[in-house]
Amino acid sequence: MKLGTDNKKKLGIMAVLLVIAAISVGRMVLTLGAKPAALAAAPAASRVAAQPSPKRVVAAARDRRQIQVTQITASLDPTLRLDLLKLGERTEYRGSGRNIFKPHEDPPPIPDPVAPGITQPTGPPPPPPINLKFFGFASHPGEPKKVFLAQGEDVFVAGEGEIVNRRYRVLRINPGSVEMEDLLTNHHQTIPLT
Asked: pLDDT-based confidence at 60, cuts 50/70/90?
């Protein structure tokens, strides 16, 4: 029966690594089980020796680290200090009044420029004017009169009662003007012939 001995070099390396691991685990167990008083006495004994060996130097450094760890853990007192907790409870947060969730402050409101003694007339604003231009008639014998109306570059031809530009109704056609109604605002306006 073969036990993986076909590669003797790998088997030898594995055995050496196992021995090193066993030694390091054993040392760790021994150092964790040592008492702080014994560790404090070890550095004093190592200072007495005239020529310390390399093993003693390593042991002294390890002991110094262990003493430092012991001192740090002794200063961390795990008891609960109620006096410090009560001091924190009495503290009230007083912020600056700034909203930390807004990147910029809102500008202050702009006051009305009206003097305090003068009142402005209140009421609905006037409706917008009808911006059509009346520039001519179209009349054939036996047919009702029609007018030519322009809005910008658009030209419309409409008779009485017809709707222009889906918003304005022609109410009455007079010889020098035309009466129009804004269907959205019910505003009436007379447009003169230009």
From this structure: low
Alpha helices in the chain (DSSP H): 8-33, 36-48, 54-75, 82-90
Task: Give CA torsion, residues 67, 73, 75, 79, to 10 deg.
Answer: -150
Tokens of 90: 């009495």
DSSP line for 148-160: EEEETTEEEEEET
What DSSP string describes 39-71? HHHHHHHHHHSSS--HHHHHHHHHHHHHHHHHH
Residue 82 pairs with which residues in a beta bridge?
A: none
% of the chain with per-residue pLDDT over 70: 70
CA angle at residue 46 from 42 to 52, to 5 degrees?
Answer: 145
Higher pLDDT, 85 or 70: 85
Q: How far apart are the first and last CA of the chain?
A: 122
- Tell me the average pLDDT across 89-108: 79
Residue 91, token pair as written in the block: 């503290």
Helix H or strand E encompassing 76: none
